[in-house]
Amino acid sequence: MTRETSLAATSIGVALLVLGRKAAAWWLTGSVALMADALESVVNVVATSAALAAVIYSQRPADANHPYGHAKAEYFSAVLEGVLIVVAAGLILRESWLALLSPRAPDEPVLGLAANGVATVINGVWAAVLFRRGRRLRSPALVADAHLILADVVTSLGVLVGVGLVAVTGMLWLDPAVASLTALNILWSGWRLVRESVGGLMDEAVRPELLARIRGIVATHAAGAIEAHDIRTRHAGRFTFIEFHLVVPEEMRVGTAHEICDRVEEALKAEIADSVITIHVEPPHKAKHHGVVVV
Known about the structure:
By secondary structure, the chain is an alpha+beta fold. 68% of the residues lie in helices and 10% in strands. The protein has 2 domains: 199 residues, Cation efflux protein transmembrane domain (Alpha-lytic protease prodomain-like, Up-down Bundle); 87 residues, Alpha-Beta Plaits. InterPro entries: Cation_efflux, Cation_efflux_CTD, Cation_efflux_TM, CDF_Transporter. One of its GO terms (biological process) is intracellular zinc ion homeostasis.
């Protein structure tokens, strides 16, 4: 089992544990805000299961039908998580409206808040772990899972404050109001998640600062060539694809040009993990002398 698969599988266990405690908090209190929080955890269980499936599939080796591998499968999981977030937010808003029309005081607020608080701490710790390891492994599915859990943590903190205020002040309308704010926060998280995932599916280029590093590496390690141009990049899961045209002198032997390409590839792979590099060698008359990396 790979590290990505192990983390995704553990996420399912954590999500089920948190769901159990939040469901207990809702059952003890009858609070619509705590119900909304528990509903978000149901989404987490489904989403983490999808993330595990995506991580397993993304690690399949390249084949005849998928010569670039299966890494993009993780983005589909992230999009699904975003869609589920939106669905959960819609359900929460519906329940909030119904509760606002007929508000009621929560039962056993202390026990309910205690159960929910423990679940929130568990979620917060696990979100931090997923963020750190997911970014290190460059796994979109794990990072998306971390975002989802972090949104759940923020939601839970708001719910704890809201239900606590209801218990102290007796203002019953605060319960559905907090649930509505929870839904809006979930919607925002879902939108960000979908936007980032669609960017990966659409072959979004690397960040400007990383592109600058790539240009610098090519300029430093392509001694003997004339220039490099048309540098293009894209992400696919943990892989970074880099391709460009390398202009070499007319009289340069094929073997020498190949040595330059090997040197540049080794330098790029040493700096950028899981990079896939394609270099097209061209004669001098193909030089563009504009917007290029001059070596």
